[in-house]
């Protein structure tokens, strides 16, 4: 059961990351007027760096059940939980909890902690 919870957390993390990346490009940056162009490019790349990092975290959570090392599993889960607690908290704070993103990010935390 622990393994399934970690794999579920990984899937939710990847889904949240993909939604973050697609909506960022399709909604946020499509409407945003940012100049100069270099700054716009920088902000888009930083936005997508978060997307890639969350995908990596999701893959690590999904792979954690097959880690032969208990310390590796432990530190993987702890690190990912810290990252997603911060992300969920920042999202909830910045949007006054009116954005669904914090719920997805918090569910990664709950599933990962339950699978710990």
TrEMBL record:
It comes from Bradyrhizobium ontarionense. The keyword Transmembrane applies. This is DUF3325 domain-containing protein. Keywords: Membrane, Transmembrane, Transmembrane helix. It comes from the Bacteria. The chain crosses the membrane at residues 45-63, 75-93.
């Amino acid at each position: 059961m622990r393994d399934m919870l970690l794999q579920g957390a990984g899937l939710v993390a990847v889904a949240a990351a993909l939604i973050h990346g697609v909506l960022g490009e399709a909604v946020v940056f499509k409407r945003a007027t940012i100049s100069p162009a270099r700054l716009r490019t920088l902000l888009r790349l930083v936005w997508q760096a978060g997307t890639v990092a969350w995908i990596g975290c999701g893959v690590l959570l999904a792979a954690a059940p097959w880690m032969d090392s208990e310390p590796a599993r432990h530190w993987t889960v702890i690190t990912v939980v810290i990252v997603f607690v911060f992300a969920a908290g920042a999202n909830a704070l910045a949007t006054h909890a009116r954005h669904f993103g914090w719920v997805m990010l918090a569910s990664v935390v709950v599933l990962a902690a339950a699978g710990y």
